[in-house]
Amino acid sequence: MTHRPHPSAPVTARRARRGALAGTITIAMAAALAAPALAAPASPAATATPAAPMRDKPGPVGHSLPRVATMTGSGGAVSSVDPVASQVGIDVLKKGGNAADAAVATAAALGVVQPYANGIGGGGYFVYYDAKRQTVATLDGRETAPAGMTERSFLEADGTAMDFDKAVNSGLSVGVPGTPATWKAALDRWGSRSYSAMLAPAQRIAERGFVVNDAFSNATADNAERFATFPATAKVFLPGGQPVQPGSVLRQPDLAKAYQALRSQGPSAINGGAIGEAIVKTVRTPQTTAGVSVPAGSMTIDDLRGYRVLAKDPVHSTYRGHDVYGMSISGSGGIAVAETLNLLQAYEKRAGTPLATADQAQYLHRFAEATATAFADRNRWVAEGAGTPVSELVSTGFAAERACGFDPAKAQPRPIPFGEPDGDYGPCPQPTAGASGTPNDGASTTHLTVSDKWGNVASYTLTIEQFGGSGMVVPGWGFLLNNELTDFNFKPMTDGVPDPNLPAPGKRPRSSMAPTIVLKDGAPVIAVGAAGGPTIITSVAQILTGYLDRGLTPVKAVAAPRISSRNTAATAEPGLIVSDVGKQLAAWGQPMEPVESLGRATAITFSGGKATAAAETSRGGGGSAMALP
Ligand code: GLU
After folding, report:
1. Residue-number span of the structural domain to which 219 is assigned
2. Active site annotation includes 282
3. Based on CB atoms within 10 Å of each CB, which residue in 183, 219, 293, 575 is the most buried?
């Protein structure tokens, strides 16, 4: 899709800019006062003790917490992008809560300290390993299109696709939020603590505030123009008309009020209550500064009341004796990760050398070919309500057929045509089909991974879509509304190729989020997920192969330089591109545009009765891994 400036849309939020931003946001209360993020992925400690619980004293929360990229223990672990949020989860585990409890509390805290990437105005996918049953189950808490949405909602009157930024900064892009209901569903199914108790630390952080660091201030500045067009947003993030300044304390009393309402009424505060009424008003009649108008949405209170978190079977595939579980539709991540891993096994058979012993360039070449192929199929076949042949897409038969075009010394021409996951697989069919183009995807989001001493594991990705979502804070309630509906394709991506991801009433837009849990013989081996729009899929798959095939430690698997080949888009981190490995990849024809930072991941691995939490060493300023002894 071509993004042209829209003359009637004074609100600007350039997509390229967003991509750069996504890797930089962090709420490092600790940054100024404590240990810097690890520069290198060396493990700082085999076993360590997180900080003492945050005390209930006046002043901003958690300003002295260090950022640590890896920690090992047997009493439970939390890995998130932010030390305050990780500490909230660790405190829950310390007091006897389980992984579901701690995941909800951590997520609620992230909604306060990382409000541009997630929050109660958004949605997400919750994947959970229940140690007693030795099973993985998932919750689809994705935002949903209102009943009033149609296939033409993102078209102008003349049938052309709406300018992307115009759609982002609008009521039209706001999906019915699913996050507060997801927390309830997770606690009801697996938790041992109350909804109110798990949201209490987040409310406290919103009330007391946190110390703004450079990255948060810069991110605010980058969004200042569009935030300024919505007075309720400016009130929170542009005090006195200026972006919140580094070193200042950001208190969010309206958000604290929203958390209080959720604690006393449950998710119905949003799915029908006073907050819901305010959401409807904001979406239908966006409050903008004089002279600015943005498209309105059609959401009604019935849309909010009718929202359901969907309990779904995970996508399941096998990889070298492991069971890989991911999120199914509306997600495309679980399917694309599974196909990527299947393709790598199929290439191995064709190439005759194992991935584990291939040299680094050959490993990444195979990896890029696999992800590009998986994206060709994902773009053509995967979306809610499209009759997606999930089990065929993740079958080894389909992968064997799709591996046909692989050449160990030459990249397949892009775009790779999509395959036919029809159950009838030949050794090497001539591709007759075309290719689907790269759809819109944002680059925001957050992922957290939690385990407890009983062996339960939560892998949870949540988002408000792009950085800062729709740009609209709900007046009086202090949180940003998502722009998740721009994850729909506004019109078919390729002429003549059916597009499964067009808008429709009540439909959930296709997501790239890929919270994953891998088991062996029924026990967890690794849980992982990432932020970063469509690069989530490639980040997760690369971390899995780094850990399972290439012998990397968890933190090195997370830190490894990334390549993200997505068929009609192909990016890699600059250090990789200029290295000898990158030069070899280029010589084989691998397309790679430099992008400073791809994805932002967290993971936990399990071995010998211990859990090792791993977070980013430097992307986004580094994440926060904590474990209890
Ligand atoms: N909206 C994206 C998705 O669901 C996530 C946001 C992002 O990371 O860009 O795939």
Report:
1. 11-144+167-309+444-487
2. no
3. 183
